[in-house]
Amino acid sequence: MAEAERTLQEVLSAFDFGAPVVGAVRYGEGHINDTFCVHTQPADRPCRRFILQRMSAAAFKRPDQLMENIIGVTDYLGREIEKHGGDRSREALEVLRPKNGEPFYTDSQGGAWRLYPFVEDTICYQSAQTPELFAASGRAFGRFQRLLQDYPAGTLHETIPHFHDTEDRLAKLKAAVAADKLGRAAECQKEIEFCLARESDCSVALDALRQGRVPLRVTHNDTKLNNVLMDKDTGAGMCIIDLDTVMPGLAINDFGDSIRFGANHSAEDETDLTKVNLDVELFAVYAAAFLEGAEGSLTDEEIALLPWGAKLMTLECGIRFLTDYLVGDEYFHISREKHNLDRCRTQFKLVADMEANWQRLQDIVEQYKKG
Ligand code: ADP
Ligand code: GN1
Ligand code: MG
């Protein structure tokens, strides 16, 4: 038996699935964790599925703190959802503990694993197939933020320090360029210059925070469309997943990361850049839905800065992909050569498109200001 298979068997036997396991297969399109779908077959009921994940050791240095955050947040969300008459088993994740009662299982190789019930009758989309679906995801992420608005932020650990610190992301890129350990910088000159030309942009949201113009809130920080499960019948945003980065952060970043990923009609790793274009209509649809879900909780200053959230999350993500390419693809899963370089190029194409449409983006959000 191969090492990886032996480890998976060890982990499967560490959890009580309540029925015989009939298979475990790699699942989903996340870039960070190793995700498996576990199928079980109860004697008298249909197959029951679970999501088993090995948390990324490259991304998360303290799985204990990470799981403390997730258990705190999922318990809280579950209670809030029940209070509002919702179904917590479909609308919130639930952490299932291993047999040893710990929040997660550490395998003999040191890997940290967690288990969730599979949220059935939902679809995880990789692109916004209709404006309605994109709007539904926006309402769900806006609502998520509102549901957590009274969560005790001080109890949350910073699972990835400087996660959306765009200045720090640029500094890390500069260090990777200077080290150029794989000799890849020469082929990325255009992309490197693109980032350097936007150095002052990297401070816009951070300055707003430092100057007290926008508040720190409990935010999701990774609001890609494939981090919300949509109801398969109604298309409503059912369950927000991928809670690894729920931390104090900026509302505009949660808005912005969704725009980065969803307000276009191409994949994040599309190599034909003529196909990568910001869809301003989708930006407008998402803005309306996100603010509706947030139920008036955003301030006028936050609303005014929503286009900046979109631009900065896109620029920052491109910087991160480029840095990872230069250091040897240590962080994001890749499935082909130059995958991270391809991804960075789509992000910079979108940034350029946002800049070209800047006035329109600002006009769109202006109407939602209250004052
Ligand atoms: P990553 O951080 O690697 O993106 P995610 O937590 O987002 O990991 O999980 C990867 C994918 O697995 C998701 O995009 C989704 O398709 C699927 N998934 C995760 N959790 C669940 C769940 N509880 N029920 C159904 N599907 C899930
Ligand atoms: C990662 O975990 P996943 O695949 O949903 C990353 C995000 C990036 C995104 C780019 C913890 O998201 O920050 O924006 O890839 N998550 C982490 O697709 O780094
Ligand atoms: Mg994910």
Explained architecture:
There is one protein chain. The protein has helices at residues 3-14, 63-83, 88-91, 131-147, 166-179, 189-196, 204-210, 251-262, 280-293, 300-304, 306-327, 339-356, 358-366, and strands at residues 21-26, 34-40, 48-54, 105-106, 112-117, 122-123, 217-219, 228-231, 237-240, 247-249. By secondary structure, it is an alpha+beta fold. The strands form three sheets. It has a five-stranded antiparallel beta sheet with strand order 1-2-3-5-4, with helices on one face. A three-stranded antiparallel beta sheet has the order 6-8-9. The chain has a two-stranded antiparallel sheet with strand order 7-10. Helix 4 (131-147) runs antiparallel to helix 8, helix 8 (251-262) packs antiparallel against helix 9 (280-293) and helix 9 (280-293) runs parallel beside helix 13 (358-366). The longest helix has 22 residues, at 306-327. The site of adenosine-5'-diphosphate (ADP) has 20 residues, from loops.
